[in-house]
Specification:
Length: about 300
């Protein structure tokens, strides 16, 4: 195995297509096909199940992908360490949807202006998904929310995944949003609607919302169902339509138009961290962390 083979293998695994992988790597398809076959022959196993449309990883392929992610990440760290005074290479950043809209735009703009040689790759997802991706070497770092209620200095980000380290960034105020014509809500049991609009499981804000609403007792828990939504636009549209309630960070709500008529009820503060793998450090990451702390 060499790093070029592993990079090609990883691209095909991610794209599930020789054609798309070749385009992403700027290689000809025949070269990608040949290198994948050579890797399979050298290992003596089939790494993909092939059909007419997709390249699906076998069990052996899944195992190799974990090692490939680690080796390619370590190689990138080594390359960057040779130029510690000038950030370069690739930095893969994960972020919650809300932080991508409110916290990241200005720091990312400053970072790109200061370090144009760094290729930034941005991915979004729930805090659980992002923490797992950092630990699996699919991301270098991620902006996530921690469900803990202690002061930031007392919170252990390792609770999000063994092997994670983190830097405190800010504290968000979570608010319950309801339709304008909903009866006034002072306590969880005052919620009359039957649905909570939220992201998929693994979202820290959803976890906080469910915990707060659970304080309303068994009757509220039994009649309140979760409607999973793909975006905050969909979540707020569902609330405005009178179909659900939701819990969102106030900073995100402040960015939205036409939300003044929604009813808002304070829920709790939630702390936001930049997490990375313990021991991970590159000049590109350190420069990015500095920009975030300037916010």
């Amino acid at each position: 195995m060499d790093l070029a083979e592993l990079e090609i293998f990883r691209a095909v695994a991610r794209e599930q297509s020789i054609t798309r992988a070749a385009k992403r790597l700027e290689r000809v398809q025949s070269n990608v096909t040949t290198r994948v076959k050579q890797l399979e022959e050298s290992l003596g196993v089939a790494l993909f199940q092939r059909d007419s449309k997709r390249m699906i990883l076998t069990a052996e392929g899944h195992r190799l992908l974990g090692y490939a992610e680690q080796m390619l990440t370590l190689a990138e760290e080594a390359r960057q360490s040779m130029r510690a005074d000038a950030p370069s290479g690739t930095l893969r950043v994960g972020s919650m949807e809300s932080a991508a809209a409110t916290l990241l735009p200005r720091p990312l703009g400053r970072y790109h202006h200061a370090w144009p040689d760094v290729a930034l790759e941005i991915a979004t997802g729930t805090s659980r998904f992002l923490a797992d991706a950092v630990l699996a070497h699919r991301l270098d770092c991620a902006v996530v929310a921690h469900p803990g209620t202690a002061v930031p200095s007392a919170i252990d980000v390792g609770e999000l995944g063994e092997g994670l380290a983190g830097t405190y960034l800010c504290t968000e105020d979570l608010v319950l949003v309801l339709p304008a014509d909903h009866p006034e809500v002072r306590r969880p049991e005052d919620v009359a609607l039957r649905h909570l609009a939220a992201f998929a499981r693994g979202c820290t804000y959803r976890l906080c919302a469910e915990a707060w609403l659970a304080e309303g007792g068994e009757d509220l828990r039994q009649r309140l169902a979760v409607r999973e939504m793909p975006s905050y636009h969909a979540i707020l549209a569902s609330v405005a339509a009178g179909a659900a309630v939701a819990v969102v960070p106030r900073s995100l709500l402040d960015l939205q138009r036409h939300t003044a008529a929604l009813q808002c009820v304070p829920v709790r503060p939630v702390h936001t961290f930049l997490v990375r793998r313990e021991g991970f450090s590159t000049s590109a990451y350190e420069a990015f962390q500095r920009e975030l702390l300037r916010t």
